[in-house]
Sequence to fold (243 residues):
Amino acid sequence: MSKDEIYKSGDAAPIPFEFNEKVARVFPDMLRRSIPGYDASIETIGWLASRFVRANTRCYDLGCSLGAAAQAIRDNVSEPGVKILAVDNAPAMVERCRQRLLGEPAPHGPEISVEAADVRDIRISNASMVVMNYTLQFLPLAERDSMIKSIAEGLNEGGLLVVSEKVVDEDSEIGTLASGLHHEYKRSNAYSDLEIARKRTALENVLIPETIEAHRGRLAAAGFRHMGVLLQYFNFVSLAAIR
Fold:
């Protein structure tokens, strides 16, 4: 696993964050050291897939990056006729995702296809499970309602949407505390204060977090009957919503 040292160099350029080849190369290490509870979110997606995915339906991993969620679904589903579509708009991520998921035939599990596309252009249909794992937060605020609505419309009754996001708390004091603990988490994983500050600057106006209440309101407005937080670690959450 290549180590994430993108923001370590003294000449690191203060440019907006993007999912380019440099990021794709170190992405597994970046996730492990930057997102508290990331592995638990992937494990949970697999367990949820075993409960919610139905025969002859589709599953979607929207904003798939290297395909961890799609792989978790495949590894936990034995129902016949299931197809998984993994989608990302970053060429470097798509290429590595294809190598990871399609490089060798899977001994079992559903068929997976990987598509280079904007998630907003994907038509969801006959879906029993959709995952947006740290993806919605990168879409413009004005387009998030329509994204979730299009997913809801393409989910079958009883279908599941999993949304993992970085969030902000409505109580600013708690929000500041959670942010500070997140920085402490990254320090414990050998990121320097300079690296933390540089990445925070790179993500400004690129990753825009919302409150949990905002997410719940959006899901309810889209027609989901049940929703709630399954996982939370500081200011990172995974929400489940059932159509």
Observations:
- The helical segments are 21-34, 38-52, 68-76, 91-102, 144-154, 172-188, 193-203, 212-222.
- The chain has a mean pLDDT of 93.
- The chain is about 40% helix and 20% strand.
